[in-house]
């Protein structure tokens, strides 16, 4: 379904939205656009349909899915003991890149929550997808639409690359505006806990919530055998085929460190300002180092692009952790299996893989 052209006749758009909604209500798999990344959706109340998501992605069974809803009015249908703070946050940040973890009601099947007694819920900021969910009348369980372990999909062509022949439809809603997945906040504990940094900066949440505990999995500081609270945070993720090394520190210094380490078959991910240093290399630019929105939009595309090249290793510059930098850096570090060089300290830090 190509729904990128909003100048089509209204009736034609409505027919496509109804057809897309029917795929969901009939138990099928439908890739949907959101402002963060493309999702691979199914009826979140239909255990059999949700099982097909896991098969299509090759996703580990213990990794729960997020339910997508059109408004906070749907929360009491699927969640128990919804705290007032959830409504405050929904009023402020929904539709938008915030997923809240809440206690689930038993209508939400074990397939969706991977057996947990909690469920992640979010309201995506995409008009087409909101219209499809409303037309279907059911919450849509949707992980990111990539094959498990690959970088997330930020356009319909990426979804086709990973899911062609495995799913019943792709809704093309254009490129994703945010480019990294939603921020996940666990509201079942006090103080609330950040389980995954994402498209909504931590600082914006803190301004409303007050104290937020940052889960150790966010920084990669988990000890051997320790389990992150968001099961998905423990997997090596977003990884291109070639191994990635992330170089943190000031951009001048990280560029120097990469220049020193790189060989002829090294691919480079760098800020626009430093592209000139790496002429002749397979190169993906992240945008200006002052423009973290651009970096978020570019990061998955940059990681994905190397799989079509013959690079044997990849070095990446990394933004600082303020604002969207926390999410962009987290995605790069996860792609690197937390193989990190600190250009300021000139020491190599190896965390969990
Ligand atoms: O922006 C997004 O959140 C995208 C779009 C499609 O909405 N979705 C997405 O889904 O990123 P996925 O499945 O790729 O990542 C969901 C993450 C996983 O790390 C999972 O472990 C965690 O959310 N999660 C889901 N339900 C949870 C729960 N009840 N408790 C803790 N973590 C949960
Ligand atoms: Mg994912």
Characterization of the model:
The chain has 353 residues and is α/β, with parallel strands linked by helices. It is 31% helix and 19% strand. The protein has twelve helices and 17 strands. The strands form two sheets. Strands 1, 2, 3, 4, 5, 6, 7, 8, 9, 10 and 11 form an eleven-stranded mixed sheet that branches. It has a six-stranded mixed sheet with strand order 14-13-15-12-16-17. The mean pLDDT is 94. The structure holds threonylcarbamoyladenylate and magnesium ion. Pathway: Cofactor biosynthesis; coenzyme A biosynthesis; CoA from (R)-pantothenate: step 5/5.
Series of H and E elements? HEEHEHEHEHEHEHEEEHEHEHEEHEHEE
Q: Please tell me the overall pLDDT.
A: 94
- Helical fraction equals 25-40%
- Rg: 20 Å
Assess the beta-strand content as a share of residues: 15-25%
**What structural class do the secondary elements suggest?**
alpha/beta
- Name the overall outline: globular
Residue stretches low in confidence (pLDDT < 50, at least 5 long) are: none
Major β-sheet profile: 11 strands, mixed
- Taking the alpha carbons of the first and last residues, their distance comes to 38 Å
Small molecules in complex: threonylcarbamoyladenylate, magnesium ion
Q: How many DSSP H or I helices?
A: 12
- Count all strands and give the number: 17
How are the SSEs placed, and which strands pair?
Layout: H1 10-25, E1 30-32, E2 39-43, H2 47-57, E3 66-68, H3 75-78, E4 79-80, H4 84-93, E5 98-104, H5 110-113, E6 118-122, H6 127-136, E7 140-141, H7 156-163, E8 169-170, E9 183-186, E10 193-196, H8 202-209, E11 213-214, H9 216-219, E12 244-248, H10 251-261, E13 266-270, E14 282-285, H11 292-305, E15 313-317, H12 325-335, E16 339-342, E17 347-350
Parallel strand pairs: 1-8, 3-6, 5-9, 10-11, 12-15, 12-16, 13-14, 13-15
Antiparallel strand pairs: 1-2, 2-7, 3-7, 4-5, 5-6, 9-10, 16-17
The structure holds threonylcarbamoyladenylate (TXA) and magnesium ion.
Magnesium ion binds next to loops.
């Amino acid at each position: 379904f190509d729904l990128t052209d909003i100048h089509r006749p209204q009736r034609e758009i409505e027919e496509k939205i109804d057809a897309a909604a029917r795929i969901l209500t009939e138990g099928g798999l439908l890739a949907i656009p959101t402002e963060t990344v493309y999702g691979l959706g199914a009826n979140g109340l239909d255990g059999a349909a949700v099982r097909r998501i896991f098969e299509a992605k090759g996703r580990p069974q213990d990794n729960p899915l997020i339910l997508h809803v059109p408004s906070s009015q749907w929360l009491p249908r699927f969640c128990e003991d919804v705290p007032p703070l959830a409504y405050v946050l929904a009023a402020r940040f929904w539709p938008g890149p915030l997923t809240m973890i809440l206690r689930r009601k038993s209508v939400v099947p074990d397939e969706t929550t991977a057996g947990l007694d909690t469920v992640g819920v979010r309201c995506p900021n995409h008009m087409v997808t909101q219209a499809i969910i409303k037309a279907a009348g059911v919450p849509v369980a949707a992980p990111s639409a990539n094959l498990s372990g690959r970088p997330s999909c930020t356009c319909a062509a990426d979804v086709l690359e990973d899911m062609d022949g495995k799913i019943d439809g792709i809704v093309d809603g254009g490129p994703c505006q945010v480019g990294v997945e939603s921020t996940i906040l666990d509201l079942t504990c006090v103080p609330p806990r950040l389980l995954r940094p994402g498209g909504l900066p931590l600082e914006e949440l803190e301004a409303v919530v007050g104290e937020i505990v940052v889960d150790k999995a966010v920084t990669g500081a988990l000890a051997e055998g320790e389990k992150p609270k968001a099961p998905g945070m423990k997997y090596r993720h977003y990884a291109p085929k070639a191994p990635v090394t992330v170089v943190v520190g000031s951009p001048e210094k990280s560029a120097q460190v990469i220049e020193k380490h790189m060989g002829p078959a090294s691919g480079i991910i760098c800020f626009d300002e430093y592209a000139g240093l790496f002429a002749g290399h397979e190169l993906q630019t992240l945008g200006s180092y002052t423009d973290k929105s651009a970096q978020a939009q570019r990061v998955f595309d940059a990681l994905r692009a190397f799989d079509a090249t013959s690079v044997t290793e990849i070095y990446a510059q990394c933004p600082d952790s303020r604002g969207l930098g926390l999410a962009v850096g987290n995605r790069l570090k996860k792609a690197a299996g937390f193989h990190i060089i600190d250009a300021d300290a000139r020491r190599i830090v190896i965390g969990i893989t």
